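Hi X.,

You mentioned you wanted examples for the new student's onboarding notes, showing what a folding record looks like when two proteins sit in one file. Here is a clean example. The first protein comes first, with its sequence line followed by its structure tokens.
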Amino acid sequence: MPRHDESLVEEALSAYETVIQAFHATTESHWLHLDLTITQLKGLFVLADEGALIVGRMAELLGIGKPAASVLVEGLVQLTLVERAEDPSDRRRTIVRLTPQGEELVSQLQHGERRLVRALLGRLAHDDLAALTQGMRALAATVADGLPDCHASLDGAVPRLSTSKPLPSTRTHSKTLDS
């Protein structure tokens, strides 16, 4: 692993932290002003990823029961973020899809930071953008080699690269009580 001037590493970290704080200040307002539950957010993102779904499939993907999914959908319909339609092939099933307002919200939440970064990059001088691009490519290549296991290096030693596999997804199941 190459050794670097520690002051240069600290300067890079300081610049990184300044940029990240600016991103958070800009994007936090979108998240903090949402009046949605975590399950409602998950529902929106599932619909954005999967497209139109029947309520039963949405429940399955979210790890909740069909009654809870129906209540979830009703709340999102009331907020005009999703719309329901009868399944033409089976009138007993309901299809749920994002409304344009729902699509816009998900897009803002998913890509707002990317738009900000694009705008900032557009303001850089050509040479600065080229230098940043070269540095980001080098950092991306380092990440591709594996992320450091920083928790194992509490003694101040250089972090070693983690070879562990990612943790499996843990999906929790919510139960609802019928009134």
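Then the second protein repeats the pattern, sequence line and then tokens:
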Amino acid sequence: MSGLIVLAFAGLLMQEAAPHPSTQAAYRAPVIRPFEPGRDFAREPAQGDADSELYRRPLEAPVAVEAYVRSYEFTPSDVEAAYEQGVTSAEIRADQAAGRLDGAWRLVDAAGRRLYDLVLSDPGVGAVEGGWRGPAGWGPATSDGATLTLEGVGAMTLERTGSGWRGQWTVGGETVPASLIRPN
């Protein structure tokens, strides 16, 4: 009898927890690179501003609000403007490459009450994956573009409506109308 207990205990120690079978591929460098300035970035002298003051002088006394005539800050230098423009451009290109379900969403019932919050990663091509959280806990979420599945909770058919989605939310055999909207 004690040999059987030892054998069962050894079997429990040998079990390993398996990770969630994600279909998302391992990280690869994006096709659209983030802004990476070239080697000669900021090495050229600014054209037209060379004689101006680049940085604000240290304050020697308190300054009254009335002392500001127009601007509170110096205008950005050519280097700062070019860098900001590059970062903004890279962000716009990344947003354009994302799919329609990418980002934060909220699943609400027909009365507009929040059921679940979701974050989805939609690469624009292929499976959509993400996660959900709500009163029942949290877990993985997947979509094939026609159906959104919250693993362990239920599924919703997806029909595009303006800036959101609507469909039928099915939980435990019961189907009710629901919407997928962007949170405020």
